[in-house]
Design a protein that fits this description.
Protein name: L,D-transpeptidase
InterPro entries: LD-transpeptidase, LD_TPept_cat_dom, Transpep_catalytic_dom
CATH class of the largest domain: Mainly Beta
Strand order of the largest sheet: 12-11-10-19-14-15-16-18
Pfam families: YkuD (PF03734)
Strand content: 35-45%
Radius of gyration: 17 Å
Structural class: mainly beta
CATH architecture of the largest domain: Beta Barrel
Organism: Kineosporia babensis
Number of strands: 19
Shape: globular
Largest sheet: 8 strands, mixed
CATH topology of the largest domain: L,D-transpeptidase catalytic domain-like
Order of helices and strands: EHEEEEEEEEEEEEEEEEEHE
Helix content: under 10%
Keywords: Cell shape, Cell wall biogenesis/degradation, Glycosyltransferase, Hydrolase, Peptidoglycan synthesis, Transferase
Length: 268
């Protein structure tokens, strides 16, 4: 398959033969990524996506934040049917999050701190910026060398690998009435819509954040997304219900490269 990229994108390629493979989930785009488009929701089923991302391996598994290479992040993926989340390490009366999630993909967290056998993680729940503590025993740890930074003022998405910029791309963001909320988030799932030429393009990532103005939309929770578009002429403007839109060739390349748990910083 020929891959085309806008902007400076040298180096944004998944290494063949890497051990971890991220497969896109099957989902109703109009329900989950419900803050994204002004179009009607798309059909509720989709064929399985191709193998989407191969994460670069390391000589030794990284299980602590202090051992991460520059620009990398620590990602935790549920190994069982649920993960218990607490307000503090060793806490009681925690809440449980189910795995797999509604889309069929694995429950994933971005790790921000650690204390002995406990991990502090970003949560894919309201309110935006929620964190909690989980046990190492309930997750498998991996790393992502990638990071996304979105400037809404510039309508630009920057891709970084190991702390170095490898691509800059034009992006559409939320309208004034339904703005994209700034903050620190991460990629929670990858889906493939029925219609690659539809409002969401060929791929859509779920983001851990939610709209501040839409508590519910089109039957879903107002979750943010990063996806393609069938209106490329509107990239570089305030156009969506809160989601981030990219050119279809760009979202395809990202879908084949980025692992779940990759952080995305959205700046005003």
């Amino acid at each position: 398959m020929r891959r085309i990229f806008r902007g400076r994108s040298a180096g944004l390629r998944a290494r063949r033969g890497a051990p971890q493979i991220l497969t896109a989930s099957v989902i109703a785009c109009g329900v989950l990524l419900s803050g994204c488009s002004s179009s009607e929701p798309e059909a509720s089923s989709a064929p399985p996506a191709p193998q989407a991302s191969q994460v670069e391996s390391q000589a030794e598994a990284v299980s602590h934040l202090e051992n991460l290479s520059e620009g990398s992040s620590l990602v935790a993926t549920a190994t069982g049917a649920e993960v218990s989340v607490f307000k503090k390490p060793g806490g009681k009366n925690g809440k449980s999050l189910a795995s797999p999630i509604e889309s069929g993909g694995p429950l994933t967290f971005l790790v921000t701190d650690e204390q002995d056998e406990w991990l502090k993680v970003h949560l894919p729940t309201r309110p935006n910026g929620s964190t909690g503590w989980i046990s190492r025993d309930e997750v498998q740890l991996s790393t992502s060398p990638y990071r996304l930074v979105v400037s809404m003022r510039k309508h630009q998405l920057q891709v970084l690998k190991n702390g170095q910029s490898i691509g800059e791309h034009e992006v559409g963001v939320g309208k004034a009435a339904t703005p994209t909320p700034p903050g620190e988030y991460y990629l929670t799932e990858l889906i493939q819509p029925n219609n690659a030429d539809g409002a969401y393009g060929p791929y859509a990532f779920g983001i851990s954040g939610h709209s501040d103005t839409l508590q519910k939309f089109a039957g879903g929770p107002g979750q943010l997304g990063l996806h393609g578009t069938n209106q490329p002429d509107k990239l570089g403007s305030d156009v969506s219900h809160g989601c981030l839109r990219l050119a279809n060739e760009v979202i395809t390349e990202l879908a084949e490269t980025l692992p779940l748990g990759t952080p995305i910083e959205i700046q005003a």
